[in-house]
Amino acid sequence: MDSLLDSYRRHLQGRNLSPYTIRNYLSDLSHFLQFLQEEALSLQALSRQAFRHYLARLSQDGVAPASIARKVSTIRTFLRFLVQEGHLEHDPLSGVRGPKRPRRLPAYLSPEQVTALIEAASGASPGELRDRALLELLYACGLRVSEVTGLDVGDVDLLEGIARVRGKGGKERLVLMGRPAVQALRRYLRDGRPALLRQPHQQALFLNMRDGQRLSARSVQAIVRRYAQRAGIDRRVWPHLLRHTFATHMLDGGADLRVVQELLGHASPTSTQIYMHVTQEHQRRRYLEAFYHQIHRPREG
């Protein structure tokens, strides 16, 4: 089993997936293979009935339907890989589907909350200049954490107001930064980054304060949480929430779905359409609130 997992790990690494994604895939598979071992089953002897027993155990353990669906997808992809590589004669789970994922609308911040979050980073120290530029860029471009930490100095063009981003699978795209993000980046590059720089040849755009190395994803998460607390935002705030907020605000403002899809780096418009549902729900609530206020306003006379 270990040799098969090692072979699959090399296969995933060859697809340019992120280490985080690969770790999740292998964790799901390890859990499944442990189940087979406990049941004294081999992959060759795996039946649909045994697999349904595995899914039932996951449900009994309180695993969310969305997580179960992800595990099913991961296991089926692994089995197809084993068939292609000649380790299995056929896929024992061909046609098997996991539980239907419940549709959940992405959370997002209001424009007032975004403003408060970014304005919370208003200091002039090198670290605060970096944090202001980071927050502006996360919101203005709708970047993933891996994308913003992967930026190099040469990837941003302040004159044109664009940045070259490497997304999932190493695919590159151009994103528009906007004037506030450009201004924050200009201040950071002029007054902040030089003070954080330890090695002259370091190309990373955002540097940590400890040793001047590339800022990590975990550090970005901590920065976003810190300024959300400082801004008095009474809810959990994380970097990807700013990506959801960017997409929702763009569509709320009348942006074309295809444009938002390209800016987000989505391969399919289906991934972007979820934000249309958010926008429609937002508009419905505003209408109902206005209607409720209208029928309950004090009557004259």
Topology, element by element:
Blueprint: H1 2-13, H2 19-38, H3 48-60, H4 65-84, H5 111-119, H6 126-141, H7 145-149, E1 156-157, E2 162-166, E3 172-176, H8 179-196, H9 217-230, H10 239-252, H11 257-264, H12 269-295
Antiparallel strand pairs: 1-2, 2-3
Helix pairs in contact: 1-2, 2-4, 5-6, 6-8, 6-10, 10-12, 11-12
How would you describe this structure in keywords?
hpI Integrase, Chain A, 301 residues, mainly alpha, 3 strands, three-stranded antiparallel beta sheet, DNA polymerase, domain 1
Question: Helicity level, as a percent range?
Answer: 55-70%
Count, helices: 12
Looking at this structure, what is the CATH superfamily of the largest domain?
Answer: Intergrase catalytic core
- Reading the helices and strands in chain order gives HHHHHHHEEEHHHHH
So what's the overall shape? elongated
Number of structurally distinct domains: 2
Mean pLDDT: 84
CATH topology of the largest domain: hpI Integrase, Chain A
In what order do the strands lie side by side in the largest sheet? 1-2-3
Beta strands, count: 3
Low-confidence stretches: 287-296
Secondary structure category? mainly alpha
Separation of the first and last Cα atoms: 82 Å
